[in-house]
Design brief:
- The structure holds two protein chains of two kinds.
- Chain A is α/β, with parallel strands linked by helices.
- Chain A contains nine helices and five strands, in the order βαβαβαβαααβααα.
- In chain A, helix 2 links the parallel strand 2 and strand 3.
- In chain A, 36% of the residues are buried.
- Chain B is globular and about 60 Å long.
- In chain B, a hairpin with a 2-residue loop joins strand 1 and strand 2.
- The longest helix of chain B is centred in the N-terminal third of the chain and has 16 residues.
- In chain B, the strands form two sheets. In chain B, strands 1-2-3-4-6-9 form a six-stranded mixed beta sheet, sandwiched between helices.
- Chain B is built from twelve helices and nine strands.
- Helix content of chain B is 44%, strand content 14%.
- Chain B is of the alpha/beta class.
- The chains are: A alpha/beta, B alpha/beta.
- Chains A and B meet through helix 8 and helix 9 of A and helix 8, strand 9 and helix 9 of B.
Chain lengths: 198, 265
């Protein structure tokens, strides 16, 4: 039984063989609101049932306006790797490792390219010595912790405010919009008009 | 906030307010996700027609608020039509009236913007969208097709492929894809969509009113006549504006390095 999280956290526990994770997550996120944070924990070793499930999961997590934290247990398979590449923060328990076939999942190349850039994406796909978890840790996205529960609490206390949710939305806009429009989006988000004449 | 001071009949589902020279028209039927019925469309058309006649109004913001723009037409209204009654229906006449509006309209779109709602938004001159907006023409899934521009209005903004996707597949696209393909002109946080559209409308309203109207007429001519005719029409409109007081004032203000004071004459 996983320990309870703070009130601002919404927990979703992955389990092997469950194929309706995207729809369950969508339902959870529909009623969630800032300053809440989504925590995905549980068994990350599974594969996608089919490519459309991968698309659904990616769509749900890409659309999430809340910070998303992954806290996997055990080995990490294709589905878990996709989630790691979509999350804002990752808490890794000591000894966490990717399973041998993690690269076999759908959509992982595109996700790795989007999150890590073309060079690192090639490195992790074409060189077995390059470890995705190390890259995420080096980038500050993942934290390898002897006390995952404590690390999770620490991250939750940092990300539980309204500013983290706003940052999440602004980052998404920055990825999708031309630069000046993204700046304007951010100004509106912070309650300031983009129109200097007002 | 502009929604607090809107006027309108309690049961009309359309309310209006003024912000200087900008008219704000709000579709206000949140319990039905702003589904459009003949009364709503007729009221919008009447508001826009009145704005065209009012020299104090220079631009309009059309919105459904920060929740949903419009999830489409009331299905029961559509299903109650025969071929003959639809062609003569208030719904169809209202859409035509909206498309004929002469002053610039900025759509402020959030949430669902589907079917007739999408056609309504695309009939506007500029579309400002909230980051929760979703667009689509799902009519094909109901066994018919869009009937108020949904097979035509995507093309000039987003191209033939996007138009065919929308009309033939009936799938929905999120606001980011809508921005990428050019269906919308700006994306802002949903809670700021009315303010952002209003800022744009205010900027338009500060221009010479006759020139804004002429620019809209020239822009609309693109779909109504050949390129050669549209270019000739543009020249005619331009020549007509040269004789106006506003054109003189604009030129003088530029030379004198001061803001122009346009009068709409």
């Amino acid at each position: 039984m996983a320990p309870p999280l703070s009130e601002q956290a919404i927990r979703f526990t992955l389990s092997t063989g469950a194929t309706d994770a995207p729809s369950q997550l969508r339902r959870l996120l529909r009623v969630a609101a800032p300053p809440q944070v989504l925590v995905i924990d549980g068994d990350f070793s599974g594969s996608f049932a089919d490519p459309s499930e991968a698309n659904d999961l990616i769509s749900v997590l890409t659309d999430a306006n809340l910070p998303v934290i992954a806290a996997p247990s055990g080995s990490i398979g294709p589905q878990g790797a996709a989630i790691l590449l979509l999350c804002d923060q990752v808490v890794l328990e000591a000894g966490a490792a990717l399973s041998g076939h993690w690269r076999d999942g759908p959509c992982l190349a595109a996700l790795a390219h989007r999150r890590l850039g073309p060079l690192l994406a090639r490195a992790i796909f074409f060189d077995d010595r390059t470890d995705l978890l190390d890259i995420l840790a080096d980038a500050g996205i993942a934290k390898k912790a002897d006390d995952p529960g404590g690390s999770l609490d620490s991250i939750l206390s940092r990300l539980g405010g309204r500013s983290a949710s706003m940052a999440k939305r602004a980052l998404k806009a920055a990825a999708e919009l031309p630069f000046r429009e993204a700046l304007n989006y951010d100004r509106w988000l912070h309650g300031r008009s983009g129109d200097e004449t007002r | 906030m502009y929604l607090a001071s809107l006027d309108g009949m309690p049961d009309s589902f359309v309310r209006t307010t003024r912000d200087g020279a900008v008219l704000v028209v709000l579709i206000d039927r949140p319990q039905a996700r702003n589904a459009l019925n003949p009364g709503i469309l007729t009221a919008i058309a009447a508001s826009l027609a009145a704005a065209d006649e009012n020299p104090e109004i220079c631009a309009t913001v059309l919105t459904g608020g920060p929740g949903n723009f419009s999830a489409g037409a009331d299905i029961d209204v559509l299903s109650g039509h025969s071929p003959a009654t639809y062609l003569a229906s208030p719904t169809r006449r209202a859409f035509e009236s909206i498309a004929r509006a002469e002053k610039p309209i900025v759509a402020a779109v959030a949430g669902y913007c589907l079917g007739g709602g999408c056609e309504l938004a695309l009939a506007c001159d500029l579309v400002v969208a909230g980051d929760n907006a979703v667009f689509g023409q799902p009519e094909i899934n109901l066994g018919f097709i869009p009937g108020a521009g949904g097979t035509q209005l995507w093309r000039p903004r987003a191209g033939a492929g996007a138009q065919a996707d929308a009309a033939l597949l009936g799938e929905l696209i999120d606001v980011w894809e809508a921005r990428r393909i050019g269906l919308v002109d700006e994306v802002v946080p949903a809670e700021a969509v009315i303010d952002a559209a209003l800022a744009k409308a205010r900027t338009i309203a500060a221009k010479a009113p006759l020139a804004s109207r002429a620019a809209k007429a020239a822009l609309k001519s693109a779909g109504r006549m050949s390129m050669q005719s549209a270019l000739e029409y543009e020249v005619t409109l331009m020549a007509g504006l040269l004789a106006t007081e506003d054109a003189q004032e604009g030129t003088n203000a530029f030379l004198q390095k001061r803001p122009p004071q346009f009068k709409g004459r």
